[in-house]
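haha ok so turns out i had the wrong file open the whole time. this is the CORRECT one, sorry everyone. sequence first:
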Amino acid sequence: MQNNKDQRDLSQKPSRFWILGAGRFGRIAVERITRHIPGASLTVVDDKPSTIRGPHIHVIREEGIQWLYHGLKADQPPVDMIVPAIPIHVVYEWLTLNLQTMFEIQPVEILPSWLCRMPNALRGKAGQAYVSHADFICPDNCPEPEKICTHTGKPRPMDLFRLLGTLDFEEALPIVIRSHQLLPGVGGIYPADLRAAMDTACRNSHRPMMIATACRCHGVVNFMRLEKKAHLTGPC
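then structure:
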């Protein structure tokens, strides 16, 4: 189950961004967005001091997921695209923060039979894996062409966000959010896709789930199970 609009028109580029993280990839995102999207409004969130400065740039010193949790409470948040630039699975962490008011979140161990079905999979922490069509380090300015890999010159396999959405891990429901490439080396997700993922998780809380974020070539997945708390109310 894929929670994204594959046919979004990115010729009309977003102009309001929340960049989570002010490290190397956060700085790359700021530099490339300000260079290629004149007048873009950027909010950069990091819990460490940052030297990022510039017109239309608002720097907030706060933990990124907590800030995102509160920032997306509004029905119409003042943002077009969220750019994750912190070393965690932002979608999974945001979902668990929202769902934990109603559910106990239990990581589900990734079975070897599941792991071998995902390309170049590498285990992370409990219930997590990193997956990629590439068995090499991609350049940070890859333009992510649709058909041919710029590094190998060979045809691309099926888009990874599509592939993950088609996997049937027995009873584990795939909830996949696409990371859309905005600029070479800069990908982002849409607030509406986050909300759609939470709605899907709530409606299927009886099933184990695979939460994934992926672009055409790379992704991160977390397997989890929800156990409803008694006599509590929340987003579901």
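The chain has one domain: 16-228.
again sry for the mixup
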